[in-house]
Amino acid sequence: MYQIKTLNKISPAGTDRFDKSKYAFVEEIADADAVMVRSASMHEMEFSPSLKAIARAGAGVNNIPIDKCSEQGIVVFNTPGANANAVKELVLAGLLMSARKVVPGIEWAKTLKGQGAEVGKLVEKGKSAFAGPELMGKTLGVIGLGAIGVLVANAARHFGMKVYGYDPYLSVDTAWGLSRETKHANSLSEIYQNCDFITLHVPLTPDTKGMINSESLEACKNGVRILNFARGDLVNTEDILAALDSGKVSCYVTDFPNDELLDVDGVIAIPHLGASTPESEDNCARMAAMELIDFLENGNIKNSVNLPNVKLERSGTCRLGVIHKNIPNMLSQISQTISAAGLNIDNLTNKSKKDYAYTVVDVDGLISKELPEQLGAIDGVVRVNLYR
Ligand SMILES: NC(=O)c1ccc[n+]([C@@H]2O[C@H](COP(=O)([O-])OP(=O)(O)OC[C@H]3O[C@@H](n4cnc5c(N)ncnc54)[C@H](O)[C@@H]3O)[C@@H](O)[C@H]2O)c1
Ligand SMILES: O=C(O)CC[C@@H](O)C(=O)O
């Protein structure tokens, strides 16, 4: 039996994919072959040698210690694009809310409770405090043109906005999906100087942490509206609060509230609801489950953030999945060790991603108990998994 541990609430659309005759859900991570997780932080967790894979039912993997996983040969998956539409829809709501003062207006309207027949008159008298501009004709800067950024950029065009997009690592596939009317910004300065609204759709990494700070805000237009549906730490809290106070920023919409941001004028703090739709939770859970099943049963890897994609049709009698450092001479040492064990290699594939590589070998004949140990002893081999 394969043992699965779920952290967070994972939709049954995913958990039901595991065949009950082959999979069991366990309480303790120490017993697990694989983990399904959403936003729970795994940075302080110990991983037992049984743990082979972690599937993030979502996009951001900053809650998972990727380097530690790679060193231990644990494959980390995510579910690219599976929640992008849900986030896009809330970003569009965020754009409207940031412009039209709907949230403070609703809060003010509640204070009129108990005024009886006067409510209508009071509404008309007080509403001018909550007027806000239209989106049509305004400029939106989208930072990060991945699954979500592209959808937001394209949809904003339908509001009549002029859209600038910035992404130095834009993939060819994504570029095909981007509206031709999106202006390609060559630098962040171009976004800051030109945009009335700026929306962030980049992963949180050491490079992007704090990218919105006093310096970048200084380069922005006065009264800019900032939307952050990506990760809280992309924006320096102290600096955005100062910019709200000075009027440099007129609204900050964030899906990642912290104590300092709550109940501040100009801040719209949403409790991380970007991906909280039944459709997106189902999509993410389903994709994460399918990734784990194909890896645990066949050693195939799709949508991993730390190892290459490898898909090999099963052949031979057994399969070995060897996770190793991306250094010279690994393939020949692996195949020599297998040949020395008297086994014929039926099929083999090898792919690399940054510092790590993955070799999948289908062999004819039965694999002895010693062979995985011999392969594991090769300098640079991190982990050997056996698939029967
Ligand atoms: N609020 C939510 O519930 C929610 C849901 C999904 C994703 N997210 C967050 O949004 C982020 C983006 O999600 P996605 O699905 O679009 O991911 P994605 O991987 O499809 O897109 C990220 C894009 O950012 C680009 N990028 C990376 N570094 C950059 C930089 N320094 N400057 C500009 N562009 C850069 C990449 O090239 C990529 O195109 C996730 O990493 C996650 O943190 C939040
Ligand atoms: O699981 C969630 O609800 C949020 C997921 C989101 O932050 C992501 O990065 O995909």
TrEMBL record:
ACT domain span: 319-388
UniProt keyword terms in alphabetical order: NAD, Oxidoreductase
EC id: 1.1.1.399, 1.1.1.95
Q: What class of enzyme is it?
A: oxidoreductase
GO MF terms listed in the record are: NAD binding; phosphoglycerate dehydrogenase activity
Answer whether the UniProt record assigns the keyword Transferase to this protein: no
Check the record and name the Pfam families matching this protein: 2-Hacid_dh (PF00389), 2-Hacid_dh_C (PF02826)
Q: What CDD domains is this protein classified in?
A: ACT_3PGDH, PGDH_like_3
InterPro entries the record matches: ACT-like_dom_sf (IPR045865), ACT_dom (IPR002912), D-isomer_2_OHA_DH_cat_dom (IPR006139), D-isomer_DH_CS (IPR029753), D-isomer_DH_CS1 (IPR029752), D-isomer_DH_NAD-bd (IPR006140), NAD(P)-bd_dom_sf (IPR036291)
Its catalytic activity? (R)-2-hydroxyglutarate + NAD(+) = 2-oxoglutarate + NADH + H(+); (2R)-3-phosphoglycerate + NAD(+) = 3-phosphooxypyruvate + NADH + H(+)
* Annotated pathway: Amino-acid biosynthesis; L-serine biosynthesis; L-serine from 3-phospho-D-glycerate: step 1/3
UniProt lists the family membership as follows: Belongs to the D-isomer specific 2-hydroxyacid dehydrogenase family.
Q: Tell me, what does this protein do in biology?
A: Catalyzes the reversible oxidation of 3-phospho-D-glycerate to 3-phosphonooxypyruvate, the first step of the phosphorylated L-serine biosynthesis pathway. Also catalyzes the reversible oxidation of 2-hydroxyglutarate to 2-oxoglutarate.
> What's the name of the protein?
D-3-phosphoglycerate dehydrogenase
